[in-house]
Amino acid sequence: MAQDEPPDPTPHLPEGSSRKGLLRRLVDGLRGATPPPAAGDPRRLGRYRILHRLGQGGMGIVFAAEDESLGRKVAVKTIAEPDESARKRFRREARAAAGVNHPNVCQVYEIGEDGGQLFIAMELLEGESLTERLKQGPMSVAEAVKLAQGMLAALSALHETGTLHRDLKPSNTFLTSHGVKLLDFGLARPLPRELTQSLETGTELTRPGLLVGTPRYMAPEQVLGHDTDARTDLFAAGVILYEAIAGRPAFLGASVVEVLSATLHEQPPALAGDSAVVTLDRLIRRALAKRPEDRPASAAEMLAELAAIPLGDSSAGRSVARPLTRLAVLPFRLLRPDPEIDFLSFALADAVANSLAGLPSMLVRSSAAVSRFAGEAPDLKALATQADVGHALLGSLLRSGEQLRVTTQLVEAPAGTLVSTQTLQSTLGDVFRLQDELTQRIVEALSPSLAGREGARRRGVPASARAYEFYLRANEVVRDWAQVAVARDLYRQCVELDPAFAPAWAKLGRCHRLVSKYYLERPEENLAQAEACFQRALELDPELTVAHKLYVHHESEMGHAVEAMVRLLGLARGARNDPEIFAGLVHACRYCGLLEASEAAHREARRLDPHIWTSVVYTWWARGEMERVVSETSDASDFQLRMMALEALGRRDEALVALKAVPTTSLAPVFATIRAGLLAIFEEAPGAASAFADVVARHTDPEAFFMYAAVQAHFGDPERALARLTKAIDGGFTVPQTLREHPWLSPLRTAPAFARLVERADERRSQALVAFRDAGGDTLLGAL
Q: 91, CA 20 to 30 Å: which among 126, 262, 344, 601?
């Protein structure tokens, strides 16, 4: 938007005047002592006697005036030299706006023309714009909800008449003693074509002097010149609400192009606070969806959702939000090759990230998650956009004898502004102390953007430097699926040296589980060892988040999904800003048959971290949403689920081509056998059903039993399918909705045994739902 955007018909401060002086002029005007118009200003426009200017912009001037025929004060807005097309549009839209009579809409009295000068006469308001109010600081949740109710009620009234606002922003949102008033609707202009072209093609464009007020509130479809509808205004409402409660714009940028690029590609930081803050943030996220179809369908629907925000307690009026600080810890760079410490590149960076991850006002992206952005000169713009972060920690390592020197830079992303730099040195045997000190210095550097001076809690301090080295080396090795057994042995050496180091017990438990499930190495023995390791970790540290997050998969697969769900819900109440906990709830809730809660947990995880992986595609499969499964998977990831979804959509040829292309060398043994079994059964090879049954029998996961039972039923093996479903439900995967609705299970539905399975699944789901509600799941997730 160019800098000649229309002025607001509100009491703006004239250039060179003080607010106190302006208020005195307004009071004098009401008393009849009105100062004369400025030189060159009209004395009259139509039947309105001009009193004085209220504001001026590139498109015209706003005056305080008196309607002498009715004896009332009004605001009169002029439009500067519009062409004939603009005049026609202005008349058409102003007439539509004048037809809206609502207490939250500034009333338009007349559109007129005097001596070739177009003007619009409207209600003269007393109060202040939202722009002025936000200069005092962010709103509480209660204030923001009241603001939202007024805005959405006004938008609903406008939309019912077929009028879109198209230029909603804080300066067009006026706060009066009687509530919110929306101004200047229907008068927005499209962006210059060269701006939209630069955004579509990714080319740089600088426009010195451009104001970035209005572009901050434009929806993606507006930015790109696509069709707009009522949901376009809802996006702007979401942006305004975010700014009102967070105290910062939703989309940042030093230029129009940067702001609009952020609008198209980025998400603002999640908001932390009490349940009222989180519930309002969820609604804001829906309004800020990039695709209009993912937003609330109407202002009335969004207004109704405001009722879910818990404002009943006495603290609601004081409930405030804080944007989470989002940090990426990039792998540290070795200044010279050194095989003895190369594991520290990822391991030390991850250790720092894990220490910071427990802070209530911070979200941390691990070095593994952002490793593709690493390098001598990281692409901070790509990092900010694709990893959704506002800060990055860059580091380097250099060893001299037994001394290790770590140098770090904390920078803002994408600008690259240096926040702080640290250089620390320690012996190789004292890496934990180095990590601990580095963590605390980062907290100190970020403390202005955190909620107070938070300190990272020390969890499971290792008693042995050698044990900690084993732990860090294992963390590096376990990133390669082919070396899970090697990592298991390293974690085992760690706990042998330091039996009280809880994080190593938790990760050792995960390795035992993976070796059992995917490598089929002494499955029962490794599962028993996994259970013992997880229990030991939680015994040593009952609040160790990593142990809870890793344990949920094992616990669910062992038939204890309800217990896992309840435990994670309890953990989430104290660690509400940890997306990994909600990712775990996606898994546990699905096993309990609570598919709506599983998807709600996914939305909450993505609210906190838009790029986090969850198992929600399996939830979509259970709900029969095959198109979503296909859109969110690839031939390399979750290939068996993708193949089944393609088959369900009638795209077997595509499924076979993709299945044959899956590289077998990189697959864990169980996946290699599943691939071979699926290939045989999809090709309807002789004896494929029996061969596939043998393959499935090697699995230990009840969800896998359920899915492969559906395959067997679909391909004409109902007897084995029913037996496998029974084992799945007995094992703890209870999804009555899928039993009733999945088309592949149709051949089984006439069997009495199948009806009994549905009854058993219903009963277990009902029990899980009671436990979910008793644990506060509906409040935490906004589900059910």
A: 126
Hey, which residues are catalytic here? Answer: 167
Contacts of 284 (CB under 8 A, 6+ apart): 238, 241, 242, 245, 271
What span, in angstroms and rounded, lies between the C-alpha atoms of 457 and 454?
9
Phi, psi (5° rounding) for residue 656?
-65, -40
Residue type, 340: E
**Residue whose C-alpha is closest to residue 510's, from 532, 493, 495:** 532
**Using CA atoms, how far apart are residues 654 and 634, in angstroms rounded to an integer?**
12
What is the CATH architecture assignment of 157-323? Orthogonal Bundle (1.10)
447 class by beta-carbon count within 10 Å (0-12 exposed, 13-18 middle, 19+ buried): middle
Distance CA(50)–CA(73), nearest Å, equals 10
Q: pLDDT digits over 583-639, tens only?
A: 999 999 999 999 999 999 999 999 988 888 899 999 999 999 999 999 988 766 788
Q: Is 664 exposed, middle or buried (0-12, 13-18, 19+ CB in 10 A)?
A: exposed
Please write the tens of the pLDDT for every residue from 440-453: 888 888 876 665 44
In CATH terms, is domain 325-449 a member of 3.40.50.10070?
yes
What is the identity of the amino acid at 118?
L
The residue assigned the tokens 């559109």 is 111
Q: What is the largest CA-CA distance in the chain?
A: 100
pLDDT mean across residues, the chain? 83
**DSSP code at position 105:** B
4-14 residue pLDDT tens: 333 333 333 33
Token reading at 306: 């405001």
CATH number of this structure's domain 543-784: 1.25.40
Extents of the domains making up the chain: 157-323, 325-449, 543-784
Q: Is 447 helix (H, G, I), strand (E, B) or coil?
A: helix
The torsion defined by the Cα of 216, 219, 225 and 231, in degrees rounded to 10, comes to -150
Beta partners for residue 397, in sequence order = 334, 406
Burial class (CB in 10 A: 0-12, 13-18, 19+), 101: exposed
- In this prediction the pTM is 0.81
User: How many CB atoms are located within 10 Å of the residue 774 CB?
Assistant: 10
